[in-house]
Amino acid sequence: MNRDSSFSWARLVKVLLGLVVLVGVGWFLFVIREILVPFVIAFIISFLLHPLVDRMEGRGMGRGVSIGLIFAAVLVLGAIGFFTVGKRLTEQVMDITEQFLRQETVVRQFSVTNTGEESAPVEVMWQRMRPGKRFALVDPPAFPVELAPGARLDLQIRFSPRGTEQCEGILRFSSPELEEPFELRVQGNASGEQEEFWTNPENMQKVAAQGLEFSTGGIDFGKAGPSIITRMSEVVSGLQPKLHAYLGVEVDLEKLVKVKGREMMNTLVGRSSAFMEGIFSGLALLVIVPFAVFFFLKEGRRITHELIELVPNAYFELCLNLIYQINSQIGGYLRGQMLETGIVALLSVVALTLIGLPNAIPIGLLAGTANMIPYLGPLIGGITASVVAISTGGGGSMVLYVILAFAVIQMLDNLVIQPIIVAKSVDLHPLLVMLVVSIGSQLLGIMGMLIAVPVTGILKASTQTIYRGIRGYRAG
Amino acid sequence: MADPLWGRLFNRQSEKQESLFEVLKRIPIFQDFNPREFAKIEDILHRRSFASGEVILREGEMGVGMYIVLSGQVQILHAGEGSKPIRLATLGPGDFFGEQALLDESPRTASAVAAEACQAIGFFRPDMLELIERNPRTGLKVVMRLSQMISIRLRQTNRLLKEARERTAAVERQLETRQEAASGAGAPAPPSR
After folding, report:
1. Which residue from A129, A351, A454, B120 has the highest number of Cβ atoms inside 10 Å of its Cβ?
2. Is A11 within the bounds of a domain?
């Protein structure tokens, strides 16, 4: 057979056809990429659970029963997790999102209408503002305002707190018409128990008194406060004179942080909301992932078996061996990664909680996940934790503790965890990781960033094995 | 080979119809397995068809498993010194070959070529390891039977080796006595001439 040396049109056509099919499949996968995400996740999860199912089957349980038991266990563990840490985690995530996204000032409308037959002079005055002047009228008219019969005075009240502390105050309206002054109560960042005044709906309706009608008896401004970016820029602006003095650089750091921070925040939020719409619509993830995991675990071997049957005799053994090797490579890689991620996340949560950093749970989880990215990951976790430490007024000592904690965790990871797990067989170059993480975020947002590293690991393990296998097979 | 992929895709169903169970029962390795164990083993066996003259395994290539002949004839060939390969054996239904690769990853020591259109069952190391993991009892039974078969072959080889050694020894002895006789009778002759 001299088929290797001979050139034939049929061969060329075959190669071209193969290329066209390959491009077509690639394009198709690209188009349906969002639909593929739950399947990729299911694939990864089934790889993690595979050895467990095998072992249970080895103990004499049916495969279906084994999978069912694992599902039940996951459900129970999930429920326990939800009831123990779930509530705190949700609160902390909400708190952290709020810190990034919260409004710095809130403006509400208020109006006074003269329902009487004579004109009435109206005078206003702020009273009992605690903890200080946090409420103000926007562009107030010159008081007293003469309100003609039937006329309405529209006022805008602004709430701009300096922190997230609870604020309250009273805007007192007086007029000769009124027997006693009308008091408009305002509050913001209310927390914990509410006074009875605020829970009574009657107080939130129109209030009529001796020829004057007020649009409401009280205004709750909700949550507001300086966002994390404002906090950061405040800290930075404190550093600016020193920087200028020592280095002689003239940069408006405060503005830089504010502008860039806002831009970054908007991109991130924009992406994540699109991602939520794309993935979680119809609870697709919650339905498809468990279903696909079950299917992969139950029928995975049969699918592989049937696929291998299609391979021509000449490549049959090679393919069979490669698939097996790829399987064990991917399995080792994924299990190692997940285990390491879990341990680092746990250590981070514990360390940050001990330090006393607010929102330690989500930040620790983020640090663990980011740890999949070599070199860059620990930085991401450390920087986020430091930002939170600064913005919550933890000061320099807390930042120091955070950095120390991350340094210790990194050391543990590199010197103890990784050598024990020994699954670093797939080493990804940091540059490559950065590239694929960027591609992932471009294609699929946050979810893309998360699955980029394991998917690249899978592809690299497969390519390596195929390359080595083919060389060894032919040379052997 | 017209188009192996498509051929396989469509032929597969009809091939499956003949129960593998019936076929396997006739083969020594699988003789005392019950139907439940067979179901487990059937999962990991690969049924392959080879055209007449098709190479099933090539000497020198890395192998991962053994084949059991179901129908047809398979020739085991060894590339000798000359251009023509030496035929070592001809195998028929129930015979198996390539079992060494099942135990260790080593290059094939001989080639197997289909002497006529034949069917064979492939049984491979990765699948066997998985079977041992999932169903240790069945897996061990297979390994046990396999070891027995190999042990029988080893015994045969030993017997052959012994015979060969005895024959060599006999030949050597004959040679020696002939030399002695030659030296006893012929060596002094030249000086006497």
Report:
1. B120
2. no
Beta-carbon separation of A302 and B43 below 8 A: yes
- Can you give the pLDDT at residue B164? 94
Q: For chains A and B, what is the number of CB pairs under 8 angstroms? A: 64
Collect all residues with Cβ–Cβ distance below 8 Å to A174 and sequence separation of at least 6: A122, A123, A124, A125, A181, A182
Same domain, A67 and A120: no
Q: How many domains does chain B have?
A: 1
The answer on A467 and A373 residing in a single domain is yes
Cα dist. A431→A197, A373, A408, B19 in Å? 60, 10, 25, 55
- Tens of pLDDT, residue by residue over B40-69, are 788 788 889 999 999 998 888 888 888 988
Q: pLDDT digit string (tens) for A188-236? A: 887 767 777 877 777 778 887 778 888 888 888 887 777 767 777 777 7
Residues of chain A with Cβ-Cβ distance to B8 below 8 Å are 309-310, 312
- With CA atoms as reference, the chain A residue closest to B120 would be A313
User: Which of chain A's residues have a Cβ under 8 Å away from the Cβ of B136?
Assistant: 58
Residue type, A450: L
Q: Look at residues A220, A255, A285 and tell me which one is the last residue of a structural domain.
A: A220
Residue A170 · residue A126 · CB < 8 Å: yes
The answer to whether the CB atoms of A57 and B56 lie below 8 A apart is no
User: Is A20's pLDDT higher than 90?
Assistant: yes
Residue B188 covered by a domain? no
Q: Which of B52, B62, B135 to mutate to test the interface with A (most CBs of A within 10 A)?
A: B62
A→B contacts (Cβ < 8 Å), by residue, are 54-55, 57-58, 301-302, 305, 308-314, 316-317, 320-321, 323-324, 472-474, 476
Residue B4 vs residue A54, higher pLDDT: A54
A323 with A442, same domain?
yes
More confident residue, B54 or A359: B54
One-letter amino acid identity for A474?
A: R
Domain that holds residue A149: 106-220
Gap from B149 CA to chain A (nearest CA, Å): 23
Chain B interface mutation, best of A53, A298, A313, highest count of B Cβ atoms under 10 Å:
A313
User: Which residues in chain B are closer than 8 Å to A323, comparing Cβ atoms?
Assistant: 126
The amino acid sitting at A449 is M
| Partner-chain residue, chosen from B50, B60, B136, that has the shortest CB–CB distance to A58 | B136
Is-above-0.90 flag for pTM? no
Q: Print the domain residue range for B23.
A: 7-159
Please give the Cα distance from A381 to A368 (Å, whole number): 8
**pLDDT of B1 above 50:** no
Stretch A39-52: mean pLDDT: 86
pLDDT band (50, 70, 90) for residue B166: very high
| Two tokens, residue A399 | 């930042």
Looking at per-residue pLDDT, the higher value among B96 and A91 belongs to B96
Is B17 a residue whose pLDDT tops 70? no
Contact present, A257 and A236 (Cβ < 8 Å)? yes
pLDDT computed for residue A472 by the predictor:
64
Q: Which of B8, B60, B124 sits opposite A310 (nearest CB)?
A: B8
**Co-location of A317 and A448 in the same domain:** yes
Is there a single domain that holds both residue A387 and residue A461?
A: yes
- To the nearest whole Å, the CA of A298 is away from the closest chain B CA by 13
b/e sequence B174-184, b meaning 16+ C-beta within 10 Å: eeeeeeeeeee
Do A305 and A439 share a structural domain? yes
